[in-house]
Amino acid sequence: MDTLRPQFWTLPLTALTRAEWEALCDGCGQCCLHKLEDDDTGEILPTNVACKLLDTGTAQCKDYRNRKAYVPDCLRLTMRNVADQHWLPRTCAYRLRAEGDPLPSWHYLISGSRETVREAGISVIGRVICETEAGPLEHHLVDWPDAGDQQAFGDWEA
Ligand code: SF4
Ligand code: SF4
Fold first, then answer.
1. For 107-140, how does the pLDDT look when each residue is reduced to its tens digit (9 = 90+)?
2. Closest Cα to atom 8, ligand 1: which residue?
3. CA separation for the pair 101, 113 (Å, rounded)
C-alpha cells in the first residue's frame, strides 16, 4: 500500500503520487452535480441536481469503476486536465491546489475528520436530488459556500 507523505497536500499537484492525488479529494460530491452556464456571462451556475449514479446519502459514486458505461461524459480529473476545469467548485481541493491555494481548515486532511466537510456545509449529503426526479435544472439553482467564506463556516469553527 502506498504511503502518504506528511503534509503531501502542500506539495505541487505534479509532485503527488497516485495515492496522494486520490487522497486529496474531500469527498464533497459537488463535482457530480449538474451545472448551468449563463449564456451572457459564461458564469457557471451550480444546482442541487445530482448525477443519477451519485448516492445522495453518502456523496459517493455508486459504480465508479463502470461509470462510463452509464455516464459517458463523466470526467476523470488528472494532473494534466485539472487546470482547465473551471466548472469545478471553488472549494474543490484539486482546484484550490491547482491555483496554488492551501486547503481550507474544514478539509479532512487538515481537520483530521471527514465529518468537518459536512459540518462546514460543503458536502452534498442529504442536500441534493437525483436527476431522474428533479425536472428542469433552472428550478434547482443553489449557492454552495465558497472555500474562503468564513461566515458560512462560522458555526463549525466557533
Ligand atoms: S458517474 Fe459517478 S463520478 Fe461521474 S458524475 Fe456521476 S456520480 Fe459522479
Ligand atoms: S469537487 Fe473536488 S474535492 Fe469535491 S468530490 Fe469532487 S473532486 Fe473531490
1. 999 999 999 999 999 999 999 999 999 999 999 9
2. 32
3. 21
